[in-house]
Amino acid sequence: MKKLLIAFLLLSTGVAFASEVDSVKTEKKKREMTAEEIAEKAARQKRRAEIEKKYQKFSKDRFAVDFMGTNWIYKSTDPGMNGLKTKWYSRGINIYFYWDFRFKKSRVSFAPGIGYSCSNIYSRHGLVEDSAGSHFEPLANPSDYKVNKVTLQYFDIPLELRIRTNPDKFNNCFKFAIGFKGGIRLDAHTKTKTKINNEVKVNVERRYPDFSLWRMGPTFRFGYSSFNITAYYGVLGVFKKDFGPKANEFAVGISFNGL
Known about the structure:
This protein is an alpha+beta fold. The chain is 19% helix and 51% strand.
């Protein structure tokens, strides 16, 4: 019995000693942070708070205006094209409004948007529509035409995943965005302007149902501050399948972002 009592006392003493040692180690560990380290930690927290406060005033690129060089990818020898050659100065414009949602405190954000897009394709071929669908034919007297173009207008929903290289500099940093947009056609028409015997005539026709109602494709944007390079490729054909020649839209241009 006496031996058991001695063993119990020794065990209790050991546990108490171990607890006291752990307590001393814990206190020692807490006391390891020096005044300089505490000041440095406080400075980091203050700096982070200032960045978060400034981010509220940061330009989130809500408004974007894109001036695009737009054209089609096609084969001029395909049925319905009849040697079509679109002009290099074919052009368009996008006007988009975005909502920028930042992922917590990272440099990455997600931006859905809405907007309007217009493309103008210039050529020396006229668009003809008959029972077989739409196709292009060379103009009879191309020198008489001052303007000959196909105009397509869309309501778009663009989506972007954005990355900013330096959150401390906010708007004055490099920006990269990949995305996707889909749109519904609002209007499709041709416009010609002729001058014959000093008489100028402008003709606009809106009777072309063979253009695809929908469009969609990937987008790309890269730049610094408010100036960016942007691009788009349409994965859907410009015309409905079996109702017109095969062509896909592509566009490259400059984008100005703000707000």
